[in-house]
Design goal:
The protein is of the alpha/beta class and 275 residues long. Helices cover 39% and strands 19% of the residues. It is built from nine helices and eleven strands. It has an eight-stranded parallel barrel with strand order 1-2-3-5-8-9-10-11, surrounded by five helices. Helix 3 (91-104) packs across helix 5 and helix 6 packs across helix 7. The longest helix is centred in the middle third of the chain and has 17 residues, at 132-148. It is globular. The mean pLDDT is 97.
Amino acid sequence: MKIGVSTFVTDQGIRPAPLGRALEERGFDSLFIAEHSHIPVDRRTPYPGGGDLPEVYYRTLDPFVTLAAIAAVTQRLLLGTGILLVVQRDPITTAKEVASLDLVSDGRAVFGVGAGWNREEMENHGTDPSTRGRLMNERLRAILELWTKEKAEFHGEFVNFDPVFQWPKPVQRPHPPIYVGGGGDAAFRRIADLGDAWLANSGSPEELRPQIERMREVVGREVPVTVYAMPEDADAVEGYQRIGVERVLFYLPPMPEAETLTRLDAMSQVAARFR
């Protein structure tokens, strides 16, 4: 069982470099960070977790600036987006950012992606929420072309460009792994066509088992599963291990540095039982 951490890196919590060093020193295998470019003041879309939207959503740092800072002070830690909101991003710029992160980290980038939930946030980026699934698929395909072709071009419903050069190419071959977030058959079909792993929302092992079975039925192959944002619960980790989950990500709330290090010490004691 691989054990990493998922978190929101914000202006109110520990800075990226000390966070990265602390994770690597404690033996965690990966860090996945959330992204929100902004939160509209007039928000009608309900928060999926219920109740008021937590303040961390308003205060996230740019994921690529954050992960590049962490790459500079670590050597082994995998550096993931969890999740990157592809429907709110230009695919040409995003392809370059991920490839650049992969280069400066010597091949440690993980591209965790999802369609998002905040409709007003999407609309501010010019995205029609009703077509975000098709848009996301096209942008991912365009990014793959840019990563893998010397002369890349793409002509689709939403993305269109004639042959272009773009470097750097990613260090990982054929490209950084794509971890697809979300549940249901639409996300599972995306994994089948474009993904390398499923980034599953936390739930009990009993709840997740039938979802994994359905995902693999839709995808048609064995797909690694990473469980996102779970508590550091040894019994739950054991349950995930029994159903074949590859990695779990303990959720780290954004806190000042001293409090973060204390929490990571506790997390690492649980993680050590599974190494």
